[in-house]
Amino acid sequence: MVNLPAMTELKLIKQQDKTDYQTRIILLDNINDIEKLSELAESAAFIKLQVKNKEKSIPVYNYKSGTTTWLITPPDENVQKIRSDEDLRQTASDLFRKIQKSAPEELVIYTSSGTGKNLLSVLEGFMLSSYKFDKYKTEIGQPEKEIGTIKIPENEVKEKDLKDLSNVIKAVFRARTLVNEPLSYLTAQKFSEEIENLGREAGFIVEVFQKSRIEALKMGGLLGVNKGSPNPPTFNILDYNPTGAVNKKPYVLVGKGVVYDTGGISLKPSEGMEAMKCDMAGAAAVAGTIYAAAANKLPVHIIGLIPATENRPSGDAIVPGDILTISNGKTVEVINTDAEGRLILADALCYAKKFNPELVIDLATLTGSAIRAIGKEGMVMMGTAGAEVKSQLTETGFEVYERIVEFPLWEEYGKYLESDIADIKNLGPSEAGAITAGKFLEFFTSFPWIHLDIAGGAFLSSEDSYRGKNGTGIGVRLIYNFLKKQAE
Ligand code: BES
Ligand code: ZN
Ligand code: ZN
After folding, report:
1. 477 an active-site residue?
2. Residue 378, SS3?
3. Alpha helices in 315-453 (DSSP H)
4. Could you say which DSSP state residue 7 is in?
5. What is the pLDDT at residue 88?
6. Positive or negative, the Cα torsion across 51, 55, 56, 61?
7. 364 C-alpha vs ligand 1 centroid, how far in Å?
8. Closest C-alpha among 457, 483, 453 to residue 402
9. CB 480 within 8 A of CB 169
10. Does the Cβ of 341 fall within 6 Å of ligand 1?
11. CB of 255 closer than 6 angstroms to any ligand 1 atom
12. pTM beyond cutoff 0.90
């Protein structure tokens, strides 16, 4: 099983106990509040000067009592709420990296007004920064110290909100770890076992189709991509169906689960190929989202579909020019074996139809073209779902700062994929690559559908605030919060 470091615990305490701690973080709601915080009042002039210099977090040491208080300055009232929430998460992340070095066993976080306003954003940024993946580090010596418990006065936040936040963060961490696990551990089979573990832990049902069942279903896309691999594929169905669900027709989430993408016979260049263990980040986001929904008992029926396989070259591998038959009977001419994600997603999208879905959302590290278009700052959306769904998703994207930009699915792009000998080919010309990938997927949909190309932000080569480095777990907070809105 995936090794998970114990996560820092969030715990409620009585309000009057909040000054008992050696290390504190106080979110100032109003700069004048420092006058009210008697223990800080003597530093008021100093703090105000720092605020003028646009310092976002300020350490205040009290040498008599031996305490350290970190002040977070109030968010700028003139900026949009989405921006100030993000500023707080990022400030909290910076603070985490400073405080982590001294690793206090416990620390307390509260607001100067005692209202808990914006406190969840601070906790979110702080906690999300605490992720690490050190399973394969063997060095013995001093184990790194960690922050033990974070305490929050009970009048500041509701217990349920704290629990929910904690579960979502846990879900993001699970997704990150799945992304960070190399192929030497995470084959398709292992991935399925990990998803089963998540299901047992959070409370959803997982059904795993092995190769024989995949063959019986004639999933020619998944089988074709898998052909060059020594390990068999799996097709995973995650079902979270709570009593009292608000929706009759399920939300279906589809995740690209290429546990490793070498490109196949159309082999990728070796530079940076190690990052291609991230090609199941869409699948990890689906598993993480359903984990969070189940853990928090969202009253929404959600189904996850994950086709999982490696993409590898071998004597048995498919070659450019081959024809594959997808499970709905449509034929695909393979132009490039590195455009494999769309082939396995085609089978999953066909399978989604069985559920008569309210909406299907697929998440995939699908194209380098999407990365070139927006980099790591966002994800690319296309789809046939209604304007309301798209604007709700986009809005949620801004709120959680997993931002979305829509690309068109104009019919002209469909012509780019016309094949001489099959119904469609798997690659268009070099321009508009993210769009033709979306256009290919559209060919296999017959329901309201959204495609999210998360290639840009799924795996980072350098640290980016609370998103950290390597697997980011993007998609989890976005889709969880979108589904939560559907429940309200
Ligand atoms: N998994 C890749 C896309 C990708 C690239 C994800 C970098 C994350 C980081 C996908 O399967 C792929 O190889 N796409 C190719 C298609 C090519 C054959 C036109 C691409 O977009 O470069
Ligand atoms: Zn590829
Ligand atoms: Zn790929």
Report:
1. no
2. coil
3. 341-352, 368-374, 387-400, 411-415, 433-442
4. P
5. 97
6. negative
7. 10
8. 457
9. no
10. yes
11. no
12. yes
